Amino acid sequence: MNETPQIGLPSPGAASAGAPTSFPEHFVFGTATSAFQIEGAWNEDGKGPSIWDTFSQTPGKVHQDIPGNIAVDHYHRFREDIALMRDLGVDSYRFSLSWSRIFPTGTGTVNRSGLDFYHRLVDELLEAGISPNVTLYHWDLPQALEDRGGWANRDVAQWFRDYAACVFEEFAGLVPRWATLNEPIANWVGYGMGNFAPGHADPRLGKTAMHHALLAHGEAVRAFRAQNDPTAEIGVVVDIWKRHPATDDPADVAIALRDEDDSFRFFLDPLLAGGYNERITERLTREGTMPEVHDGDLDVIATPVDYLGLNVYSRVVVSAEHYNPHWWETTDNHPGGNFLDNGLEFYPKSAYDAIHMVRDEYGWHRPVYITENGMADADSADPFDDQERIHYVRGFLEWIARAVEEGADVRGYYLWSLMDNYEWAAGFSKRYGIVHIDPDTLKRTPKASFGWYRDVISRRALDI
Ligand code: GCO
Fold it and tell me: If 0-12 CB within 10 Å is exposed, 13-18 middle and 19+ buried, where does residue 27 land?
C-alpha cells in the first residue's frame, strides 16, 4: 500500500520557495459550464428534448428525481451571468451548445430561435470583452437521434458533422475557439453502464458509442477545415484521471493500465497515436466488446486538431487488493490520501502529470488548455466562504505555472464552474460554482473564491 501518498506541492506555503507563481500575459483565464447543466428552458422556443431531458425526467435516474428542466435558468439570465464574468475579468468563457435547441430532431430543419439565442449570448460576450470557447457536444444528444440508435448508430458521425457544419458557418468570425466533444467517456457511462443518459447498460454498446464519438469528432474537424476560418481553432476535450498503482506489484500495475485504457487511452490513442493500442484491442476482442472499426475510420479520427483540452480534477490510486471499480462514489478502500472534505483526493500535481503525459507519451507539443478543473463544496461547508476551493484551485494553478515555466505550451485554464449547476445524475446535490445559486430563488451570489480568482486574473499571479 502507498503509506505516504505523494500529495504534490504542500499548498500554498512551501511552493513559494522557488515555485513559479505567475502566468504569461497571454495566458487565458476562464470559467466553464455546459448547456444542459445551466440553461433550463428545456422545451422553449422550439427546442427539442435531449437524452438528458428524458433521463432526468424519468423517476429513479437522478438525485431526488429533480429534472434539469430549469437548471439555473441561464437561458433567461445569461446577461446577468455574463455581467458576473465581466466583473470577474475572465478572458474567455467555455460553454456548450444544445444540439436539440438548434436542430430539435437532431437533423433536418434548423430552429432559428435556437441559433438566435446563441447569437445573443455570443454578442453579449464579445461586447463584454470575453472570448467565446464553444463546445459542440457536452452530453445532451437530441432525443430524436437516440430514438434512431443514438451514439450506437454509426450514422451519428454524419448527423454530428452536419450539425457542426451549420454552426461553424453561422458563427464564423465570432467564435475563435471550438471543441468538438467534451469527455467522450460519458458515452461509456450512458451506454455501457447506464448511470447517465440514455441509460443503457451494455458494454458492447458502450464501446461502440465511444468509437462513434471519435468518428463524429473527426468528421466535425473535417467540416471545420472545409469551412476554413483562419481566425479560429478547434480541439477536443478529454478528461484525465491518471491511475497510480498503489505499489509496484504487477497486479496493481496491470489494473492501473487497464483502467487508463478504459477511461482515456481509448480516446488519446486513436486521436494522437494512430489507433487503439494492443492491450485494448486484445482485451476487448476477447471480451466481445471491441467496436467495429471500418477502413478509414482511424484516419478520420486522427484528423489533426489545433489544441488539446484536458479536464483534470485529481488522480486515482488503484490497488488489486482493495480494487473499487466505482472509486468516485466513495473514498473507502481508496489508497490515496490528502482528501478534501468532499471526499476527492487533493492531488494538484495531476494537472502537471496530464500535461507531461500528452507531451512525453503521445508526443503532443502543440497547445494545451486545462479546460476544466474545480471542486464541489462539501455538504457541511459554509457555501459562501469556500476556502477549500481557493486552496484547491491555487494548488492546481501552482503546478500549471510550473509546467508553463518548464516550457509546456499550456495556453489557458478554465475553472469549473462559473456557478453552481445541475451536476448530471447528482442533480443539484453537488455545487461546483464560484458563484452560489440559491436553490429556491436562483439568486446569484459570488463566493469567496470568486474574489480570489478575480485577483489572480487581474494580477496574472498567485497571491503567495
Ligand atoms: C465532467 C463534465 C462536467 C462536470 C464537472 C464536475 O467533467 O464531468 O465535463 O460537466 O459537471 O466535471 O463533475
Answer: middle
CB 329 within 8 A of CB 322: no
What's the half-sphere exposure (Cβ side, CA atoms, 13 Å) at 189?
Answer: 17
Identify the pLDDT of residue 59: 98
Q: What pLDDT, in 10s, does the model give residues 265-296?
A: 999 999 999 999 999 999 999 999 999 999 99
User: 132 and 97 in contact (C-beta within 8 Å)?
Assistant: no
The CB of 53 under 6 Å from ligand 1? The reply is no
Which of 351, 443, 344 lies closest to 395, judged by CA?
A: 351
Three-state secondary structure of 135-201: EEECCCCEHHHHCCCHHHCCCHHHHHHHHHHHHHHHCCCCCCEEEEEECCCHHHHHHHHCCCCCCCC
Annotated active-site residue in 124, 146, 183, 219: 183
To the query of whether residue 183 is one of the catalytic residues in this protein, the response is: yes
Ligand 1: residue of 50, 183, 236, 392 to mutate (most ligand atoms within 8 A of CB) is 183
- CA-to-CA separations, 449 to 93, 270, 378, 446, 455, in angstroms, rounded: 17, 38, 14, 8, 10
**Is any atom of ligand 1 closer than 6 Å to the C-beta of 34?**
yes
Closest CA to 93 of 59, 63, 130, 138: 130
Total-model pTM: 0.95
Cβ atoms within 10 Å, residue 404: 20
Does ligand 1 lie within 6 Å of residue 314's CB atom? no
User: For residue 424, which atom of ligand 1 is closest to its CA?
Assistant: 11
Going along the chain from its start, the domains and CATH numbers come out as 28-459 (3.20.20.80)
Nearest ligand 1 atom to the CA of 416 is: 5
Please choose from 237, 372, 419 the residue to mutate so as to test ligand 1's pocket, defined by most ligand atoms within 8 A of CB.
Answer: 372
For residue 104, give every residue at least 6 positions away whose Cβ sits within 8 Å of its Cβ, in sequence order, or none. Answer: 46, 47, 48, 111, 114, 142, 144
Mean pLDDT by groups of 10 residues along the chain of 464 residues: 37 47 96 99 98 98 98 98 98 99 98 98 98 98 99 99 98 98 98 98 98 99 94 97 95 96 98 98 98 98 98 94 76 69 92 98 98 95 95 97 97 98 97 97 98 97 80
Q: How much is the pLDDT for 463?
A: 74
